[in-house]
Amino acid sequence: MIELKNIEKYYANKGVKSYILRHVSTEIKAGEFVSIMGPSGAGKSTLLNILGMLEEPTYGEYQFMGEDITSLNERKRIDLYRNHIGFVFQAYHLIDEMTVAENIEAPLLYKKIGGSERKSRVADVLDRFNMVAKKDLFPNQLSGGQQQLVGIARALVAQPSIILADEPTGNLQSAQALQIMELFKKLNEEEGITIVQVTHSEVNAGYGSRILHLLDGVIKEDLKVNQTV
Amino acid sequence: MFRINFKIALRNLLKNKAFAAINVIGLALGLCSFVLLLLYIQFEKSYDRWDPELEQVYQVREKHHFGSRDNKADWQITNDSRVAALLKKDIPQFKYTTRIKGAHDCSVRTTSAEPVSMSGFRYSDSNFFKVFPYKFLLGDRTTAFSNLNSVVLKEHTALKLFGTSEVLGKDLKILGYVGDKGVVYKVTGVVEDPVCPESVDFGAIVYDGAQNQDPENLGRTSYCEVYVLSEKGIDLGLLNLTIHKSYLNFKKSFPDFDPKVNEKIKDHGLKILPIGEVHANPPFKEGWVDQIKSVGALSLFLLVVSIINFVNLATAKSVQRAKEVGVKKVLGASRKSLTWQFLIEAAFLSFAALFLSIVFVELLLPFFNSHFDLELSLWHNREIFMIGLELLAILVIVTIMAGIYPALVLSSYRPVEVLKGSYTGSFKGSKLRYGLVIVQFVITVTFMICMGIMMQQGHFIHHKNLGFDRGRLINLPLNYNETFAQRLKKIPGVQYVGTTTQVMGNVFNVDEEGKYKQQIIHLNMVTVSMETLAALGVQLKTGRLFSREYQQDTLNSVVLNESAAKLFGGNCIGEQYSKKSWDNKEYRFKIIGVIRDYHNQGFDKTVLPTVYKVTQQGGSASTNNLLVRLNVSDMRLVIKQIEKEWRILYPDNQMTYVSVEDVFKKELKTNDAFIEMIACFSFVSVFISLMGLFALSAFVISGKTKELAIRKVLGASNIQILNLLSRSFLYLVFAANLVGWPLAYIFASQWLSGFAYRVDITAGPFFITAGGSLLIALLTVGSQAGKAAVSNPVKALKYE
């Protein structure tokens, strides 16, 4: 599904290149649940941003579902956002002026999906996440865990093939974090959605099927997770 | 999609109620002045558009100096009546020409009723309704003036006189001036009141046959307005050349024709003007198009100030919307759709502002109309559709001007920047915003200084010594009648009675060419009676005023004003000068006194060198002024007595009078109204700018919460924080002052140059404005900064 070849990212400052990523080459197959780990400043988020096409690599080749991303124009990229990629953020990033239901509905609007199907899909997702009672609340009326659930619901409603999550539990208490991770695992196993997450937590990484260890922009380890851990 | 964006916009507004209100109210105020201006222009443009046939009607303009304010030639509306026949003879394209006298007040008696004072009764020749396409409700357009002593009424006149418009064939007696015996006229027609204002305004057209003839004596001139009905499709420029040529030929037939006329060609001429352009081109003064320019610029400035507010607030607020933009972009929104979203938001706000401004306009209109003597309306306007379109255009323009920049800034946010952690954001475009605040304050400061200087000038002319005593002086619309004057003088409380051709409110200037020591001297000639100068209370400088004790005073004595005396070399008592009349007789006049200049027409022109004569030798004019000087403080009783005398002598006329004090106030009214308008603009612009500064400083400070907290933790005192926050804004206001000063100086001196009598520009208004603007800016920013300064830094530093 995703193929990275020799990805590099650096910022040039007064002629000195400071590298964020170096020689990153890897492949992520459909249905995988990958956790990117590493200390602060290792380049985890940058890698995720490149995967999500929010940032462009300085150098290297990136193929998403067989398409070369580096040569993609804006319109195609927006199409990919609409149809294949769901984002989940550490700070949830719900739109404050929209209710829970409206937040979840938003990506469907951009996908130009008809009104009745939108309603049924939103109702469906609300039901699955047990949030029907909260659908008319605004984000600031929810707890952090609930907000992140809405964030995931929003990412899922457009039926993406991959979810990119940047420290999805970073702002949450451990019980809530556990809940979110269980959800990810379930989505991955039951619906076959590919998930890539950035995390600091070994426990969270344990929910995935594979761990990429990043250190100073270089992949140090690529481990299969023993599911029994 | 639209619905959800609309909801977001609405929720955003509700979340920032104060800012939304500032935004909308500011813009509404700016738009309000603009809409008023629009209505005014609409009104002025509507003159003489009540019938398509009017496109073939032209007004004839003769260039001469008879009766002009400053004895200089201008393209006047009143012409020698002979040009009507001349044009009919020489220009084959003209179907009809008509002569009509100016409107004046007269007394009208219907069979039963008391005499009614009417204005707008005008005497014309038989062609008037052949030229002007008035719609006859009763009677016939072609035959209305077949018989002498006919009158055609406008509907409103008929209603006023008879209470009905069914008045065909009824008789009415018209007394043209006070003391007139009167003539009975038959109503031969009633015409509709046109829906738009007219340059050739009248209440009734009176036909007595007199206007059909021109004076036989070439030395006499009957002045009247002349209008022509022409064929379609004439070349105005070419035709005017022909007319001019034929006019010069015609002038040569006069015995007093000056052979030098070719040299003075600039002072003579004849042309025609389409009736639709008459209102925009009045003689002696600026047309409304020129007058409106300054006001138009002002309201444009005000609109700019409010649009700047809008842009400033919208971009400052953009930080709050950054996350929304980022999230929407990763959900698949394109930049174009986001730009549209924010533009539509701006349109939504502009629409709200426009709506509010229309509410303001509706509330203001009655006051505005009565204050500036106008008849503007919005909902009942005939051109409501046109105005609606113009408002729509304004909406689009304002939306684009106010919305495009914020929309572009907002839609340009890159998600990766705004979605990383919790984005507090660097201020995008803050330089531009500061620049805009400076522009805003430059305009405000300029307004304020100009207002200050104008108020000084206003105070100056209100309190200037006019050179005569305007209190307890009344003016009756009468010619001098010795019997009446003597009877008035017997009333206790009446001090002097006199007539003059020149008093404030009714000035008639006549140019007199005198010869003194072989030199030609041009004077403005005023005919008075014995007591007039005493009645006016003028200040004698040397010599004496007219007196009955001196026989020759009714023959050849003259009094000069100071300006005239200067032409004679200062001390000129006892000197003589000569003057030739039109039939070449020579008269000699002896100077017996010099008075100080006194004002009788505003302050924009200097007082003309003037000679005052009791004698009628060498020409005079009757202008219906009878001045009565009272010497008691309670004028009402005396005026009642005067009215009693009036009734005895003139039973067919209602008594009317004006007090010269009121006339003086009226003279100043236009100017006062202008100053008040500037004051209004200034306050609104100050208000908008302060609102803008308030909102902007609030945003800047909210963006600096973390910086302030860190500074406090590092040991900054509250005063230091306050100083830090206010300083940059004070620099802005100070810079605006520096730019505003020269601008205000230029504008104010331009305006002052329109006055012959004016104040000097002093430093006062500049320093007061600078101090004032800095102080209120400090208070505005300080109220925000104060809050930030005393807040607990822990709150700001807790989250990252």
UniProtKB/TrEMBL annotation, chain A:
Pfam families: ABC_tran. SMART domains: AAA (SM00382). It comes from the Bacteria. GO terms for molecular function: ATP binding; ATP hydrolysis activity; transmembrane transporter activity. Keywords: ATP-binding, Lipoprotein, Nucleotide-binding, Transport. One of its GO terms (cellular component) is plasma membrane. Belongs to the ABC transporter superfamily. Macrolide exporter (TC 3.A.1.122) family. This is ABC-type lipoprotein export system ATPase subunit.
Automatic annotation (TrEMBL), chain B:
GO terms for molecular function: transmembrane transporter activity. This is Putative ABC transport system permease protein. The lineage of its organism: Bacteria, Pseudomonadati, Bacteroidota, Sphingobacteriia, Sphingobacteriales. PANTHER family: ABC-TYPE MACROLIDE FAMILY EXPORT SYSTEM PERMEASE COMPONENT 2 (PTHR30572:SF18), MEMBRANE COMPONENT OF TRANSPORTER-RELATED (PTHR30572). Residues 297-412, 680-789 form the ABC3 transporter permease C-terminal domain. It is found in: Cell membrane. Residues 21-205, 482-643 form the MacB-like periplasmic core domain. The chain crosses the membrane at residues 20-41, 295-314, 342-365, 385-413, 434-455, 674-701, 729-749, 761-781. GO terms for cellular component: plasma membrane. InterPro entries: ABC3_permease_C, MacB_PCD, Macrolide_Exporter_MacB. It is a multi-pass membrane protein. Keywords: Cell membrane, Membrane, Transmembrane, Transmembrane helix. Pfam families: FtsX, MacB_PCD.
